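To the structural biology subgroup,

Please find below the input and predicted structure for SPOR domain-containing protein, which we are adding to the shared reference set this quarter. The sequence is reproduced verbatim from the submission form. If anyone notices a discrepancy with their own records, reply to this email rather than editing the shared folder directly, so we keep one authoritative version.
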Amino acid sequence: MRLQGTWQALACTMMLASGLAAAQAPELARAMTLQPPVWVERGDTREPLRPGAAVFPGDRLSTGPGGRLHLELEDSSTIKLGEDAEFEMPALQVIDDGSDSGLLKGVLKLARGAFRFTTGALSQFRKRELDIRIGPTVTAGIRGTDIWGRSESSQELLCLIEGSISVSSPGYPEQPMDQPRSFYVVPRGQPPRPVAATPPGKLEGWVPLTEMADAPALQSGGRYRLVLLSVGTEKQAAGEASRLAALGYATDVLASETPAGPRYRLLLGGFASYEDAQQYRRIAADRLKITGSWVMRP
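Predicted structure (tokenized):
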């Protein structure tokens, strides 16, 4: 019971910290699905992102090799990040503009990697004024649309899948984009190219880069957990949790008394099914160098 009390106190502390963060800023986005490694930086703190976690204005999100992240905004719009991406919401708020639903206004910044923004089914009830910045050279003003973009060392690129937007680059005139499957590219150190039709087959190659990879994902509300490790001391558990956090994996510790003494289990949660969690055992062995993991049912 002492073990349970220790971890219950830790859990309460973490919940209190989350509550304070929520009180300081409105919750306008949530991590719905992810494939680690994924991190969130809030102030001076960097920690792995959990499925179902709230994301606040000012948070900086990043994915590592093989990582993916799908966010849902409060108006049901989605933001999808591919691997090795860096993304930030420096400003996002709902403004009272006299309408019933208000105006969603803000800035979304992609510093590196690939992303997709798609307005959702509920978005028709909410007006929006969002600027999406891709690297240092591309800014798109959107109201309601589906776009795909990428920032890399050689260029910034934006493709309009559906809807209409305006795009610009510092020092150059704004260009309208209203034709589906058109794209805008700014080669590094060069003027932006005119808006043009996306070459055949290109979009079909880009879109999968921001979809979940062909592997189990962690989901908001996923009830199955994978027991990665079972260790004998609280210090060992804390050390392993810290090691996995540095690798972009958020774990929980379950303490229990056994006839052989106390055990501390490190759990990776968020799997939608037993099969998904079971399949992830192979990924844990490959990426985390952990063997002997097993699935804990709800």
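Summary notes: The chain has two domains: 2-210, 221-296. Confidence is low (pLDDT under 50) at residues 1-23.

Regards,
Lab coordination
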